Predict the 3D structure of the following.
Amino acid sequence: MSVRAEFDAWAAEGRDKGMEERHWHTAKHALARMPVEAGETVLDLGCGSGYAARALREAKDAGRAYGLDGAPEMVRNARAYTDDPQVSYVVGDFQSLPFETNSVDHVFSMEAFYYASDPVGALEELRRVLRPGGTFYCAVNYFEENVHSHEWQENISIDMTRWSYEQYREAFREAGFYVAEQDTIPDRETEIPAAEAFPIDGWETREAMVERYREYGTLLTVGVAP
Ligand code: SAH
């Protein structure tokens, strides 16, 4: 199945908002760290419901905020959640971004980058559109060290790239980024029931659930364009 077919179906079922709710727990911390200055142009790669572009406008006074997604139904939903004329949602693919060279100040992405058909090529494409000193804040919950995420590939027909912390840093460097920082952001908001409640749907033990959310959380890798 294509990105378009898979995620158009998700959008039609309203799963864009479900993802926003779950991802916001850690995405908001990554967004808060972005060095966006008033008036700058920002891009959210694989925007889903489009919350990041709206947040960067509201909290950081970004001048232009774009969300890009390969699924037209996601883009359609995202557009319906705002009437801010400085926020735009566009259909496009990570491998070929519809932006001029050096035209974007900062890029954010949450739980989307690993769907790229050629992840290093996608990073090179980001390098092209970012201005010198621009940053890429790449947040993922699906990564090698997070053993609890490994089975997610079974539920989706698109190939997911499962890199380790180190592979992320290496790939960023291979694509010409400096790696400014790498960190895991714990999710302290997802409710974890008391030990007696386990097993519950998807979780054998409380320890496993604590490890997934409070310890691994979201992996953030930050690249800076030279
Ligand atoms: N960032 C949002 C959505 C995550 S779901 C959130 O945090 O909730 C991943 C999104 O990336 C989907 O909407 C999917 O359509 C999009 N996507 C996946 N691969 C893509 C690609 N190669 N090009 C463009 N968009 C892609």
User: Anything to note?
Assistant: The pocket of S-adenosyl-L-homocysteine is lined by residues 3, 7, 19-20, 23, 27, 46-48, 69-71, 74, 93-94, 110-112, 115-116 (CB under 6 Å). The chain is about 35% helix and 20% strand. The chain has a mean pLDDT of 97.
